[in-house]
Amino acid sequence: MSTFVFPSRTTTAEIELGSTLQPKFGPDGLIPCITSDHVTNEVLMFSFMNAESLAQTIKTKKATYWSRSRGKLWVKGEESGNTQLVKELLVDCDQDVIQIKVENIGGAACHNGYRSCFYRKLADGAKADEAASLKLEFAARRVFDPATVYKKK
Questions:
Q1: Which of 4, 7, 47, 58 is the most exposed place for a label (fewest CB within 10 A)?
Q2: What is residue 62's DSSP assignment?
Q3: How many CA atoms lie within 13 A of 36 on its CB side?
Q4: CA-wise closest residue to 72 among 91, 54, 53, 45
């Protein structure tokens, strides 16, 4: 496997106010990534990247993540066809979170068939001290049926 080297982290001032990308990967080698629509700013998904997936995202302009469950790189849309073309890559103030703004080709970002992975919301009347009241309700409609898109191999 290739080694992907990003600039070493330097001073707090350079990290927070400088002009060099110095991502802070966690002890597990991952950095959180928020993906949003480049036009509406709607949050589409949350995932993780490692150095290789971040480098590939920068190189190809196609959103590429690290799948913790599969233990491998994951190019968004490789199975579903719902790809994400990166329009902008941002970092937070201390460069330990990535945000990518994408053109969401195919209309769905979620493997469950929704435009966004955030398709449910906490129902009105929820009370933190009453477990039975903590109900979710759907806030969106499916774009596709995952049973037909992801055929079991």
A1: 7
A2: B
A3: 13
A4: 53
d(CA 133, CA 32): 31
β-pairing, 98-104 with 120-122? unpaired
Q: Is 2 a residue whose pLDDT tops 60?
A: no
Residue bearing tokens 């009105």: 124
- State the pTM of this model: 0.91
- Considering the chain, what is the average pLDDT of its residues? 94
**138 and 116 in contact (C-beta within 8 Å)?**
no
Dist. CA 76–CA 66, nearest whole Å = 10
Is the pLDDT at 143 greater than 80, yes or no? yes
The amino acid that residue 137 corresponds to is E
User: Which residue in 52, 59, 63, 47 sits closest to 23, CA to CA?
Assistant: 52
